[in-house]
Amino acid sequence: MSVLAVLGGQWGDEGKGKVIDWLAERADVVARYQGGANAGHTVVLNGKQYILHLVPTGILHPDVRCIIGSGVVVDPLALVEEIQYLRAQGVEVGENLAVGKRTHLIMPYHKVLDAHMEDLLGVNRIGTTGRGIGPAYSDKAARLGVRVSDLLDEKILTERIRVCLALKRRILGGIGISKEESQALDEGYNLEMCRKVREILAPHVRDTEAEIQEAAESGKRILLEGAQGVLLDLDMGTYPYVTSSNTGVGGALSGLGLPYGKLNAVLGVMKAYCTRVGQGPFPTEIHGEEGERLRSAGGEYGATTGRPRRCGWFDAVAARHCIRVTGLDGLVITKLDVMDNHAAIQVCVAYELEGKRLTSFPAEINVLERCKPVYEEFPGWMTSTSGAREWEALPQRARGYLSALERLTGKKIWLISTGPGREDTIQVKDPFAALQEREPRP
Ligand code: IMP
Questions:
Q1: Percent of the chain, pLDDT > 90?
Q2: What is the percentage of the chain residues whose pLDDT exceeds 70?
Q3: Structural domain tally of the chain?
Q4: Omega before 283 cis (within 30°)?
């Protein structure tokens, strides 16, 4: 009775890293289930900032075991770099990190393909992170992927790379690629890369499905760490402006090989406002100076690409969609302190489309693009909430705003984050205690 999924309830960058780090203090296992080095989880610990892309946030806790599950796509070079970065910071990375044998690899040619596809799409580009995510998941679905287990078997590895590259060269042949890029399509180059990382990664390669199931059976406290957010989910998000994996509960179960009955609760992390990176509809986006003010107050620049994030008001219509399609039990509201200097705060309660009021999130992207937000206005508190650690310490108007978010989403807030540090957290409901209240599923 102790498996808790923590996932993004917006377009990513909700502050999941900090939340998982906070929860990991009382967890035994933290497991990443999807995405890749497109994610950037920022954690501030004793004033020092750590940015993690692939390694689960639990790594900063010496007693926590970390798992990179089969649903993740691992760029082996990025993973080795991250392991070395963590070790250089004095963080132990050894037995405590396991990478699933079934996990797919992002190869150099996936990154070249990612860049070319974006170029070819022109004005229709997705605005990807350029980390090869889409092409790696495409190859996985097309049964052309290279998996972590292949990395350890030179014969199989050579054959997988040969088959995949034969196709890629034909596809990319007509495009005209640079000399550097053509290297990425060379069998020898790809093999060499794999050989280079093999020694460092081999000790971490394990049967992660067995590990997580055993941990669940023996009552260990397990956190399932989501990347991106439900509005970027391949099926439930704002397609085609999404990432290439299932960011919600479905992705957590399939990406870790975890039986559904083992999952006890799902926490959705949402910012007190909204942000989005890359292209795609964003009904509550604030343009101009006010958007810029929110961006600079929230430090809204991508942890992976450094791109400025688009900023907007909290969108309760999108939040309800996310809650409905992934079954959130409770909410974590982050970055409340970023709203401290707003005299008035808007929340989108419905959309208006051609004189009609919509209260559900449309599936059609061209419809969503035409939706105008209907706002309810809340008075700002105009005083600092930064670092607040108790509900009672919050100004009345901040409490009113949070209660309004509960009313508009229909979900209770379990945790509130009031700053980047671990301790800048208000616990309204203990998520682990809440797990014990749930009836076991079959
Ligand atoms: P990809 O995941 O790199 O293919 O990018 C697809 C879309 O997801 C783009 O709009 C990216 O900006 C967005 N995206 C991917 N990862 C993240 C993330 O960690 N935070 C926010 N947006 C992301």
A1: 88
A2: 98
A3: 2
A4: no
278 C-alpha to ligand 1 centroid (Å): 7
> How far apart are the C-alpha atoms of 422 and 228, rounded to whole Å?
21
Residue nearest to atom 5 of ligand 1 (CA): 128
Q: For residue 167, what is the domain's CATH number?
A: 1.10.300.10
N-term to C-term CA, the chain: 12
Q: What is the DSSP string of 175-233?
A: T---HHHHHTT-HHHHHHHHHHHHHHHGGGEE-HHHHHHHHHHTT--EEEE--S-GGG-
Chosen domain end from 180, 202, 224: 202
Number of Cβ within a 10 Å radius of residue 322? 27
Longest dimension (CA), the chain: 66
Q: Which atom of ligand 1 is nearest to the CA of 279?
A: 10
Look up the domain containing 58 and give its range: 3-93+207-436
From 41, 53, 104, 321, active-site residue: 41
Q: Is residue 240 part of a domain?
A: yes
Q: Mark whether 204 is an active-site residue.
A: no
Q: Where are the beta strands (DSSP E) in 64-148?
A: 65-68, 73-74, 97-100, 104-105
Same domain, 286 and 184: no
Active site annotation includes 13: yes
Ligand 1 mutation pick, 7, 18, 38, 131, max ligand atoms within 8 A of CB: 38
pLDDT digits (tens, 9 = 90+) for 357-409: 999 999 999 999 999 999 999 999 999 999 999 999 999 999 999 999 999 99
- Burial (Cβ within 10 Å: 0-12, 13-18, ≥19) of residue 213: middle
Ligand 1 binding residues, C-beta < 6 A:
11-13, 38-40, 126-129, 131, 133-134, 227-228, 232, 241, 243-244, 277-278
